[in-house]
Structures are given as structure tokens and as C-alpha cells.
Design goal:
CATH superfamily: Metal-dependent hydrolases
CATH class: Alpha Beta
Number of helices: 15
Order of helices and strands: HHEHHHEHEHEHEHHEHHEHEHH
Number of strands: 8
CATH architecture: Alpha-Beta Barrel
Largest sheet: 8 strands, parallel
CATH topology: TIM Barrel
Distance between the termini: 40 Å
Length: 347
């Protein structure tokens, strides 16, 4: 109950902060006569941006069968508000209608929290196959509107790697996602190298997804997780690994200078920030802030930023309005909205 209430509180705070940020951006544009690129006024720029293709890369789902198994085999009682619970199982016309209304062309679908980690190994293996098959069927039905991430049963790393390969080569899924909310597990542990080796060989991205910060710090587990991955030798052994962090990089972009100053590996070919900039992408999910977006562009470059709305837990319209009106160049906006995703996921 504490975790559920914490998530609700976090979402309420995020909504209010994001709405304030978006509103502030508009007032600044109007008050200062802000002009971007070659199109003249901010108003004209916004109208032009509103027509940009948008691929949202952190958009969640549950299947009804998964929720039934979740209810019968775990003590999980569901999450979030009623509107999210209703939307998360809609992988068809209702979701597409909202996408059309808000101006989202495609969603990259991924299994919502709680993921497979809450199950025993046997159940997790069965569910991963069932969910990936179901997702593949949805994408085949709506190939221009949906693509997706496979889920993997990390309880058995070898099976996880095999399921990743099946999902990519047989089902047509474009990447993998796992939830980083399991304190007793570190992906830098040697037992998981088989998964990273397979990701490298298949050349598909890996989304490390975290829940929001809460009083038990579950959502912040991802920070030491990423640090361990970079501090280890995985990125030297598999330099083509492509890792994605949601929520503007889960605070890691702010730490890069500090982490470089504490770098204790003089024999490595790169420092921490260079590994991060070479191997990581970040998404805009749940972070509708002009100040933050401009910081990310300055620190990482627009080529490393992906548009996302964290559907259905955040407002799709708010995220679209934010990226359409953000005080950035049209070239950067187009990269963030769709070009980067098309290149990264080979869409």
C-alpha cells in the first residue's frame, strides 16, 4: 500500500510540475518574442512542430491474462488510478483513438510494471513467451501504429537470452525492456553477460526502466545499476550495446562531471561520461521541462534523446504539447520526435 500511495503522490507531483513547466515555456515565448530557427515567431514554429511525426518509446501495456496471473500468484493489488488501469490493457482502437487525438503516430509498447520479476522462474518463463507472442500479434494487426519491446525472464539468464533472440528474429520485436526495481539483482553480475552478448550480437537496444522515486528508494536503484554496468567491462567487450534510460536519464546526466572526477579506472579507454554518451540514450517520459530538455541537448546531444509519454500513467497530450512548444530548433525537435527512434529501432 505504501508503494502504491507513493506512486500516486509522485504522479500528482509530476503532473503539476510538468504542467507548470509547459505553461512557463509558453509565457516566456510570448513575453520575449522568442523565435527559433528560420520560421519566425514561436507561434508559427509551434504550428509547424505540431505536424511532426511522433514515435513514443515508453508506452506500457498489460494483457488481461497477465493481470489475472498476477492477481492469482502474487500479492500485488494493482497500481495507479482507475483511468490507467483501464487504458493499460487496451492495445487497439481505444489507444489508437487517443494517439490520433494527441498527435502520436506510433507507440513502442512495453510490459508495464510490475514486470516478470515478481514471479517464480517457471511462471516468468511461461509468461514471457505468452506476452511476447501477444505483443507480436498486436503489432502485426496495427503495423504502422505499434512496435515493441520484448520482456525476458531474467530469473534464468540463458532462457532470457534465448527468448530475446526468439522475440527479435521470429516475432519481429525491436528491442528488450526490463524493470530495474530489484535490489537483490545487479545486471553487471557475470551471470547476465549472456544477455548482453545476445543483445550485442542481435544489435538491438535494451531499455532499463525504473519506477518513480518513492520513500523506499526503489526507483533510484537504477543509478548504481548503471554505474556498475559502466564501471565493469561490458561496454568494452560489447561496444555496440545501446542502452536506454527513461525519465530524462534517471538523473545520471547530472552526475556525469562528478562521476568523471571519481573515475578510478585509468587503464580503461574512456571515462564514465564518454561511455554514457557513446552507449546510452534517454527518453523524455514524465519530464516535461524546457530547462531539463535544453540541458540534455547541451550535455548529450539531440541525437541521444527519444520522445516518450509514459502512457497511460502520464498525460499523452501534455507530453505532445511540451515537445511541440519546447524552445529548441526544428532540427533537434525532429530528431527527438521520430528520427532517432527510426534509426535506433530500425523502423
Amino acid at each position: 500500500m505504501e508503494e502504491k500511495n507513493g506512486r500516486r503522490s509522485f504522479l500528482k507531483y509530476a503532473f503539476s510540475l510538468s504542467a507548470f513547466a509547459a505553461g512557463s515555456a509558453l509565457s516566456i515565448n510570448k513575453g520575449n518574442g522568442f523565435s527559433i530557427g528560420k520560421s519566425g515567431s514561436a507561434e508559427a514554429q509551434t504550428k509547424k512542430a505540431a505536424r511532426l511525426k511522433k514515435i513514443a518509446v515508453e508506452e506500457h501495456f498489460h494483457t488481461k491474462e497477465y493481470l489475472e496471473m498476477l492477481s492469482s500468484r502474487t500479492n500485488h493489488q494493482g497500481e495507479g488510478a482507475a483511468h490507467a488501469a483501464a487504458k493499460v490493457v487496451d492495445m487497439g482502437e481505444g489507444r489508437i483513438k487517443e494517439m490520433d487525438e494527441c498527435g502520436v503516430d506510433m507507440q513502442m509498447l512495453s510490459l508495464s510494471y510490475p514486470g516478470l520479476d515478481v514471479f517464480k522462474t517457471e511462471d516468468a518463463v511461461t509468461l514471457s513467451r505468452m506476452i511476447n507472442d501477444h505483443l507480436s500479434g498486436v503489432i502485426k494487426k496495427y503495423p504502422t501504429r505499434f512496435s515493441g519491446f520484448c520482456c525476458m525472464p531474467l530469473q534464468d539468464p540463458n532462457v532470457a537470452a534465448d527468448e530475446l533472440e526468439r522475440a527479435v528474429t521470429k516475432l519481429g520485436l525491436k528491442a528488450a525492456m526490463v524493470n530495474i526495481n530489484t535490489p537483490e539483482r545487479w545486471l553487471s553480475d557475470p551471470q547476465y553477460e549472456v544477455v548482453f552478448e545476445r543483445l550485442s550480437r542481435l544489435d538491438v537496444p535494451f531499455y532499463l526502466h525504473a519506477d518513480g522515486p518513492s520513500t523506499d528508494d526503489s526507483g533510484l536503484h537504477i543509478v548504481p545499476e548503471v554505474m556498475r554496468i559502466v564501471n565493469g567491462n561490458l561496454l568494452d567487450k560489447y561496444p555496440n550495446l545501446k542502452l536506454i534510460l527513461g525519465h530524462a536519464g534517471e538523473s545520471l546526466p547530472f552526475w556525469l562531471n562528478r562521476l568523471d572526477g571519481r573515475w578510478r579506472y585509468p587503464d580503461r579507454p574512456k571515462i564514465f561520461s564518454q561511455y554514457f554518451k557513446d552507449n546510452f540514450y534517454v527518453s523524455t517520459s514524465s519530464q516535461c521541462s524546457d530547462t531539463l530538455l535544453n540541458f540534455l541537448i547541451a550535455e548529450l546531444g539531440a541525437d541521444r534523446i527519444l520522445f516518450a509519454t509514459d502512457y497511460p500513467y502520464e498525460s499523452m497530450k501534455q507530453h505532445v504539447d511540451f515537445i511541440d512548444s519546447a524552445p529548441i530548433s526544428n532540427e533537434d525537435r525532429e530528431k527527438i520526435c521520430h528520427i532517432n527512434a527510426e534509426r535506433l529501432f530500425k523502423l
